[in-house]
Amino acid sequence: MEHTKTVVCKLETTEEEFNKLMDTVKAFRSACNYISEVAWNQRCFNPVALHHLTYYETREKFNLPANLAVRARDRVAKSYKNNRKKRHKFTALSMDLDKRLFTLLRNGEFRASISTVYGRVRPGLAIGEYQKELLKNPVRDAKLVCRRDDRHFYLHITVLVEAPEPSGSNPVGVDIGVNNLVAASNGFKVNGKPVESRRRHFRKLRSSLQKKGTSSAKRKLKQLSGRERRWVNTILHQISRAFVDTLSEGDYVVLEKLNGIRDRCNVRKEYRATFHNWAFRRLQEMIEYKCLERGVPVVYVEPKYSSQRCPRCGTIDKRNRKSQALFQCVSCGFQHNADYVASLNLSELARGGWAAVNQPNVGADDRLCETTYKPLPSSWRGS
């Protein structure tokens, strides 16, 4: 079974190579904005029709190679596929590269051959042994990105990696939340309070800079945004990896469908920023692809009543949820952490559903009341 994996590689460029790449990504960005303007004014969002409207003009105006003009059109068409309510403006310094625009050179040292408006450049890759091993796999495509905060180019290379066929018979339910970032039925749990404390710190900084409104404050806001995004991404990677490492042979992961979670969940005003800005789906995606790398299947189930159903007797009652953290069944007295109970219910749903309500000894037994909760390591708290 093949799956894709993205390898991020820093480019070692000379000043001349950097300037050529910078001119090219700026031309690519301008081409995207030009195509976006045409698409919006003409109400034309089909990639083939958009190609006939813009291809020759794009090449002439911005001096782009043929395939870069095509990639710019595809980026615009893909953007409007998701949202056609307003005209899209492109600001990122990046461009998409296919096999004709990018070649990975592995002759002794790893280099990248990239097409620019001035011809080809061949910068080296500043990578370690882990990246080198991954880059031995077949390359599919790449994306060139310039990070504004450190003024370096990075190449995001997509490779095709072989993975075992997914198989497993023991469901492990996973509840994703804010107070507990992950609570799994195998006992793995990550406390979200240290992460939320750091996120509040970022929000206060943003609020303070926005009130100032000076040009230096706006520059600082951009830097802060990039730093927060990278920090959150690192946290999610570390949490998902730590969870996947706890899985045993024969396990498969059960995640809840999150469609409409922000609409159906009511939260108090002071917690709205926390809830609506957290990357629930992103964390699930990281868990999913890390599982598939190891041949661990991932299934999604509807989470209806997963926080109100008793995992021992099956009773569904709103009163079972005593508080955000405490679950206590009004029928049989079963008591445990509410997020852990939700993960147990998800695993039972994956087995094929529940027996009739109020039948005893269905789902969890008394041994499941004792589980090992793992706190968030101090290294995950950021600086």
TrEMBL record:
GO terms for molecular function: DNA binding. GO terms for biological process: DNA recombination; transposition. Residues 158-250 form the Probable transposase IS891/IS1136/IS1341 domain. Residues 280-346 form the Cas12f1-like TNB domain. InterPro entries: Cas12f1-like_TNB, RNA-guided_DNA_endo/Transpos, Transposase. Keywords: DNA recombination, DNA-binding, Transposition. In the N-terminal section; belongs to the transposase 2 family. This is Transposase, IS605 OrfB family, central region. It comes from Archaeoglobus sulfaticallidus PM70-1.
